[in-house]
Structures are given as C-alpha cells and as structure tokens.
C-alpha cells in the first residue's frame, strides 16, 4: 500500500472514490477542484491520481472515515467491493455505485433487497465517452447530464448538482429497462452495424461522418458491453424483438407511410436536443 500525503483541506465533507477509470477519475478531479477532501483508491491508477486528490492509495481501508464513497469499479467487481465496504465504513456513510445497471446491486438472485450496514444508494451518471481509463477522465464530464438515483438523498443530490449534473429519482427495475432502450441497445445496434460492414473493404474506405457517428458505441469497452448484455438479458431480449419488429414495419411500409413516419420521427428527434447536444427534455 502507498498513500500520498494530505493536502490542504477546504471542506469538512470527506469523500472516497474507488475505481479511477473514466467515471471515477472524472468524479475525483471535479470534486477535488471544488475543494472537497477526496481520497482516490485504485490498485493500478492511484499514482496517476496523486495530484488530483487529497490522498491517493491502493488500500480500500483508507476510505473508513469517509462520509460519502463513490464505487466506480468495473461492473463485474462492484458487488465484491460493496461487500468489502461492509467491514470498513460507518453505518451513516453514504455509499453509491455508478453502474449502468441497477437491479443487480439492489437485489440478490432471489429478488430480495440487499441489507447493507451503511446507507447504500444505487446511482448511474448518464455520461461517458467511447474511451476508458483515468487518462481520459475530465472534470466537466457530467455537466448537463442526467444522474439517476434509486432514492432521494440530499447530500448526494447536492454533490451531483455541484458536478453539473441533474439528479433524477428512478427505481432500479424501471432504470434497467429504460437504460437498455436508450443506452445499451444503441451500443448493440452500433456493434451489429460494424459487424455487417466489417468485411466490406470498399464500403469502409467510403465511410465518413455518418458511419463514424453511428458506430461510435461499438468502441464501448468490451468487458462493459459484455456485462450489459449478460446482466440485463431479459430486457435486451424484449427490446431486441421490438427493434426488429420496427425494422420490419419500416421495410414493409408504403412510400407514403414511410415518408410520413420519417417526418414524424425526425420532428421528435429534433425537439430532444439543444444546439450543444444536451437533452432538453
């Protein structure tokens, strides 16, 4: 274990960030810039984080005195980290994850809520890029983004607002269905398009911005993509079938129906985003 020395503290609230990839690194950098006392924990990246936090360490036990802990580990490692924290943090510590799925962190395999000895709140910042790793994290990642919380908590909501995001309260089951529709299914569609075109060398040489933008999500970290597919398979199966049905409907429409449908859908899409690409709904 290695720990960097304390810097000057500017607030009384002590925050731990476990996992320093794109999300964790961005949380760490923003909160430290805002003057919070922040401890960064990572087995591999803590040395990189030394200048961006009060302490950088490889030992999870160093979050024991934190008031709030963000668990930003890989989705496949999150449950084990949450379990480990049960013997580290106090009962009034607020612990939140940032996984893109929420049922598996809130409910066990029998559908029963986990009983944790701290104040756990499932969360999911609706922000990210196709890149991963601490080196790609940046403080402004969350500005203008929605941040899903499975229940209300004033301290956590204020921190999220401070990071420039908008807290949205939503249950775990609804979240996983909607996240599948607007985030995970687009990743799969992007991947399917890439697979369809992958062996067409002449087409790939012609590809420009439309193909680039549509296939961007196929660059999603493959471990994360696999976790999305395997942990949310029931919702995926429902939505994939619905998506295929809509493709068939578009295929079989008359010319007039197709033209009218394209116009209506374009109007909905135009109304969703502002000039900076942020969802205005």
Name a few traits of the molecule.
alpha/beta; six-stranded parallel beta sheet; 10 helices; 43% helix; disordered N terminus
The portion of residues assigned to helices is: 40-55%
In total, the number of strands is: 9
Major sheet summary line: 6 strands, parallel
Low confidence ranges: 1-9
Taking the alpha carbons of the first and last residues, their distance comes to 46 Å
The pLDDT mean sits at 92
Radius of gyration from the alpha-carbon trace, in angstroms:
21 Å
Structural class call reads alpha/beta
Subunit organisation of the chains: single chain
Gross geometry: globular
* Helix-strand string: EHEEEHEHEEEHEHHHHHH
Instruction: Give the strand line-up of the largest sheet.
Output: 3-2-1-4-5-6
Number of helices: 10
Q: Would you write up a description of this structure?
A:
The protein has 281 residues and is of the alpha/beta class. It has helices spanning 22-33, 75-85, 103-106, 154-162, 172-197, 201-206, 209-214, 222-231, 233-252, 255-272; strands spanning 14-18, 37-41, 55-57, 68-71, 94-97, 119-121, 123-125, 146-149, 166-169. Mean pLDDT is 92; it is low at 1-9. The protein starts with 13 loop residues before the first strand and ends in a 9-residue tail after the last helix. Strand 8 (146-149), helix 4 and strand 9 form a beta-alpha-beta unit. The strands form two sheets. Strands 3-2-1-4-5-6 form a six-stranded parallel beta sheet, sandwiched between helices.
């Amino acid at each position: 274990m290695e720990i960097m020395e304390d810097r000057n503290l500017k607030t009384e609230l002590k925050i731990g960030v476990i996992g320093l990839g794109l999300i964790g690194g961005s949380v760490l950098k923003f909160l430290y810039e805002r003057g919070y006392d922040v401890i960064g924990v990572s087995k591999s990246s803590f040395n990189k984080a030394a200048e961006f936090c009060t302490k950088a360490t490889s030992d999870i036990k160093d979050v024991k005195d934190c008031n709030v802990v963000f668990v930003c580990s890989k989705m496949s490692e999150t449950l084990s980290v949450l379990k480990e924290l049960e013997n580290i943090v106090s009962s009034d510590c607020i612990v939140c994850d940032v996984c893109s799925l929420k049922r598996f962190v809130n409910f066990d395999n029998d559908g029963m809520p986990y009983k944790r000895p701290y104040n756990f709140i499932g969360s999911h910042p609706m922000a990210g890029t196709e890149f991963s790793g601490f080196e790609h994290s940046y403080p402004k990642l969350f500005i203008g983004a929605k941040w899903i919380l499975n229940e209300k908590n004033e301290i956590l909501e204020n921190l999220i607002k401070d990071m420039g995001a908008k807290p949205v309260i939503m249950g775990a089951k609804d979240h996983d269905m909607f996240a599948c529709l607007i985030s995970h299914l687009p990743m799969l569609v992007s991947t399917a398009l890439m697979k369809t075109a992958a062996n067409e060398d002449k087409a790939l040489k012609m590809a420009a911005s439309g193909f680039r933008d549509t296939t961007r999500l196929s660059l999603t970290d493959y471990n994360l993509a696999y976790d999305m597919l395997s942990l949310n398979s029931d919702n995926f199966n429902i939505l994939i079938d619905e998506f295929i049905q809509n493709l068939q409907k578009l295929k079989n429409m008359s010319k007039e129906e197709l033209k009218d449908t394209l116009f209506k859908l374009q109007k909905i899409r135009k109304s969703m985003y502002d000039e900076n690409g942020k969802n205005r709904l």
